[in-house]
């Protein structure tokens, strides 16, 4: 397969009677949700129509990309209480695995990124079910899903994922919408138990911290790369001003390109300005790319950090 696979592409969906998705009032009124709705002209009072429109826009952009072979579209699990039941009060939003699987039918270029919070009581069964639906990875966001990946109680989950060949994609760094939560669960070293269990782990956002130029996790990343051949990072969201400091630092690690995977964090913007490091011509190429995925690819190319990990060796592709 030629072309990149975007391993970090978000679905958005409002709840309907049948889709298993959820969204809190707070999340619906958040600046991020309002911005996406405004930019894409999504009618928030008509969920079916809004969901179809979001998906159609995504498919159009994926299929219109010159650089992209496929995109992994991500479900998002909720928060679970101590007994492993969905904690509705603390769950900001859910994109169900069934909705994400259904969305993948919209284009042969979409791959299923399931999301199974390891704290749920039926986690092992849901991982089996997700694999049966064709999941190529399991996406988690520990800060929002309120769990610690280093929790010893999770070892059966990591063993299950290793036996299924299902990689773990985990958010790294600060999560601005969750101020007050324990942010340290987003540190990369918390992923070591999963790596030790033999799971292929993809740390999102190039291990950037997400608070502008403080990048304490890159030294950790270097050490983990050296020790664990099953450790990878995706380069999603790195053109955003709060993460670009990490992108610039990754340019001095060309030897790690074989561990880098392509990612955008769609629908977040992919910005052209970091390509200025490669000169005006490179910037202009990115600026005029006309497609979010192609712009991200152009910026990474301009900086000499184009991912060269083989996605077929990381993702659970059929
Ligand atoms: Zn993301």
Structural notes for this entry:
By secondary structure, the chain is α/β, with parallel strands linked by helices. It has one domain (4-314): TIM Barrel, CATH 3.20.20. It contains 13 helices and ten strands. The strands form two sheets. It has an eight-stranded parallel β-sheet with strand order 1-3-5-6-7-8-9-10. It has a two-stranded antiparallel ribbon with strand order 2-4. Helix 5 links the parallel strand 5 (110-114) and strand 6. Helix 11 (280-287) packs antiparallel against helix 12 (292-302). The longest helix is centred in the N-terminal third of the chain and has 18 residues, at 47-64. The protein is globular and about 55 Å long. The mean pLDDT is 93. Residues 8, 10, 265 line the site of zinc ion.
Structural class: alpha/beta
Instruction: Output the strand order for the largest sheet.
Output: 1-3-5-6-7-8-9-10
> Main beta sheet: strand number and arrangement?
8 strands, parallel
> How big a fraction of the residues is strand?
5-15%
Q: Judging from the principal axes of the Cα atoms, what is the shape?
A: globular
Query: How many individual β-strands?
Result: 10
Helix content: 25-40%
What is the CATH superfamily? Metal-dependent hydrolases
Mean pLDDT over all positions: 93
And the CATH topology? TIM Barrel
Going by CATH, the architecture would be: Alpha-Beta Barrel
The termini sit apart by: 13 Å
CATH class: Alpha Beta
Bound small-molecule species: zinc ion
Radius of gyration from CA coordinates? 18 Å
């Amino acid at each position: 397969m030629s072309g990149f696979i975007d391993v970090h592409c978000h679905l958005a969906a409002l709840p309907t009677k049948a889709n298993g998705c959820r969204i809190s009032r707070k999340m619906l009124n958040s600046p991020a949700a309002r911005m996406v709705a405004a930019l894409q002209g999504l009618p928030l009072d008509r969920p079916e129509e809004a969901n179809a429109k979001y998906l159609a826009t995504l498919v159009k952009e994926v299929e219109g990309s010159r650089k992209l072979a496929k995109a992994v579209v991500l479900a998002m699990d909720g928060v679970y209480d101590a007994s492993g039941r969905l904690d509705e009060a603390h769950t900001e939003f859910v994109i169900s695995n069934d909705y994400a699987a259904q969305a993948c039918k919209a284009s042969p270029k979409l791959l299923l990124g399931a999301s199974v919070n390891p704290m749920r009581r039926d986690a092992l069964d849901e991982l089996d079910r997700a694999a049966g639906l064709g999941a190529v990875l399991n996406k988690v966001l520990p800060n929002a899903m309120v769990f610690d990946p280093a929790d010893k109680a999770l070892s059966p989950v990591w063993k299950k994922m290793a036996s299924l060949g299902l990689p773990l994609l985990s958010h790294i760094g600060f999560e601005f919408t969750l101020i007050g939560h324990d942010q340290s669960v987003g540190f990369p070293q918390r992923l070591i138990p999963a790596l030790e269990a033999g799971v292929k782990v993809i740390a999102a956002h190039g291990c950037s911290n997400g608070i502008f130029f403080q990048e304490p996790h890159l030294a950790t990343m270097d050490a983990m790369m050296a020790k664990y051949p099953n450790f990878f990072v995706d380069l999603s969201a790195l053109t955003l001003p709060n993460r670009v400091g990490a992108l610039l630092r990754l340019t001095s690690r060309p030897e790690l390109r074989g561990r880098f995977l392509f990612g955008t964090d769609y629908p977040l913007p992919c910005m052209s300005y970091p390509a200025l490091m490669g000169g005006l011509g490179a910037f202009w190429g990115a600026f005029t790319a006309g497609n979010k995925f192609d712009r991200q690819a152009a910026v990474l190319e301009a900086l000499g950090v184009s991912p060269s990990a083989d996605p077929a060796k990381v993702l659970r592709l059929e």
